Every structure is written in structure tokens, then in C-alpha cells.
Amino acid sequence: MPGILFQLLQNPEPLVRYKARLLLPASDQVYLPALSQARDEARKSPLVEKLLAERGADGCIPHNAYFKWSGPHWVLYTLAELGFPPGDDSLQPLLQQDMEWLLSDQRLGWVKKRTRLAGGSPPRACASMEGATIFSMLKLGLVDERITALVERLLEWQWPDGGWNCDANPAAGISSFHETLLPFRALNLYARVSGDPRTAQAVGRAAEVFLRRRLFRRLSDDSVIDPSFTQLHFPRFWHYDLLGGLMALTEAGRIRDARCHDGLDWLESRRLPDGGFPADVKFYHHNMQISGGSLVDYGPLGKKRANPYVTLDALYVLNAAGRLSQW
């Protein structure tokens, strides 16, 4: 088992080892310790301990739910994105904090105000918020009846072109990639577990927001929509980048659509000589007194050093696309 996957399986972080193992064909997994052992080690990850270090005796984090990036909303989302194994009931207090904020009158009032400022329909909602929570609930095994209300919001707020946008500028007439990515991923997961045909239809419409533009190009002149789309990040939080789009389309079973080819070619071009992939930019810092702080460092940054979390995501996509002749 040579190459980058072997390196990831030797990584000191249990979550990296666990996710790497899940990428392996079943025939190779038999040569490793039991999957249950890897899962148990992932639950005791030092990274997760740092991420949850601000929890009090009541299991809550003393921040506003949406405080970037250490509030309950983002901690749950980051755990889900890391592949933390589902079923940890100690996370319930964080979900309660998140839900109290999302289901508050203040949250809905904010959406109504922005929609009114924009002159009415379509709804101007930062749907990435509901999307992130639905995604977290499903990935972390924290689903309860409240998920239905969040799904209904996304279905109600979906724009005619298939995406979502919270821009209050009346001139904003197309969906935002940033605001569409997480609802797309969340509704895809929900459609798979619920079998709800309305949600499946919404997922198909959302996929077209990205596919029509080949994941990063303008319809008008084929230019790159935003230079940041062609950078690699982990975590992305609410931001869009090409790898995030490719991951979402992989999850939705659309990665072999011909309109993904340009994005996949770009991703392959970023592979380093050791087989890994770099992180170009980070969206977090370590000043916990202001928005954007993180207790966790998510690996190396720079164009010539492999980042394990970006590498795992990239290998997942390329493997599903049939573009990995070797790990």
C-alpha cells in the first residue's frame, strides 16, 4: 500500500487515519485493525478535544451559536466535515444552542427584512446557515423532528435558478455559489435518507447552478467567476471553492457529468509530487477574542506542502471520478 494513502494511514491524528481508511477498497481494509477500533480512536481525537475545549459542565459553549468559528453552529459543522463518527449524544447541548438561534423569531425576522430591502421575492436568506445545521445533524447522527422545519425553509427559499442568495441588493438576480453549496449538500443527504421526492427535485435544480457554469466559469464569457474559487481551503466553512463544489457533486452522484471535467482537470493539476494536495489559504486565525478564531490548527499551509484534510477530500473526489490510477 505505497503512496499518499499509506502516509495518511500513519498520520498522528486519528480522524485523518479514520477517513483515510474509509477511502480504501474493502479488500485492503482486511489487513488493518478492525474498523471499530479506528472509529473509537477517532472519537478520542486530540483535535476534537481542542475543538470542544470551551464546553462547560452543561455541555454548552459560551458563545453566540453563529460566532465564527468557535460557536456551536460552526463546531458541529466542522466535526461533520472532519468525518467525526456519528452517535455522540454529548453533542446534544451544542445542537440545542444552534437550534434555539436558528428557530428564533430574530432569525426569521432578519430574512424578512433583507427580502423586503431587496424589493420582495425571491427570499434573501443566508441558507448556508440552515444547510450547515442539516448537514451536521445528518452526518453526526443528531437528527430529530426539528430538521423538517429547516428543510422546509430551504425548499421555500430556493430561487428560480435552483440556488439561494442573501444579497439585499435588488440587482442581485442569480444565486450565490457560497450560499448554495451547503444547502445543496444538506438536501442531498436528506433526500437520500428520507426519500422525499420534493427534496430530490430541489437537489437536481441546485446541482445545475454549478454544472451550468462548469463549477467556476461565467456563462457570459467563460472567465473564472472569482479567483478564490481556484484556491484550496480546509475548513471552507460557508465559502465556496472548486474542491467543495466537486465534493458536493460527488456526494450527489454527479461527478461523472461531462461539465465536471474542467474542474477535475484543475484539481489533478494541483497534486504535489508526493501525491498530496496543498491548502492555499485559511479562513481562520487563533485570536479567540474576535470573530474567526479557531482553537485548532488544520495542518500545513502553502503551495508545496500537502495538507492532510485537503488531500483526503481531493482523493475522495478523484477516486469517485475514476481518475486515480494509483493512490
How far apart lie the N and C ends?
Answer: 9 Å
Structural class by sheet pairing and helices: mainly alpha
Radius of gyration: 19 Å
Estimate the helix proportion, in percent: 40-55%
Mean pLDDT over the residues: 95
Q: Give the CA-based shape.
A: globular
Structure notes:
The radius of gyration is 19 Å and the shape is globular. The chain is mostly helical. Helix content is 48%, strand content 0%. The protein has 3 domains: 1-44, no CATH class; 60-207; 213-243 and 253-327, no CATH class. It is built from 15 helices and no strands. The longest helix is centred in the middle third of the chain and has 18 residues, at 177-194.
Give a short overview.
This protein has helices at 4-9, 14-23, 26-29, 35-43, 46-51, 72-82, 92-102, 105-117, 128-139, 147-157, 177-194, 197-211, 242-251, 261-269, 308-320.
Write a concise keyword list for the protein shown above:
single chain; 3 domains; 327 residues; 15 helices; globular; mainly alpha
Question: What is this structure's SSE topology?
Answer:
Elements: H1 4-9, H2 14-23, H3 26-29, H4 35-43, H5 46-51, H6 72-82, H7 92-102, H8 105-117, H9 128-139, H10 147-157, H11 177-194, H12 197-211, H13 242-251, H14 261-269, H15 308-320
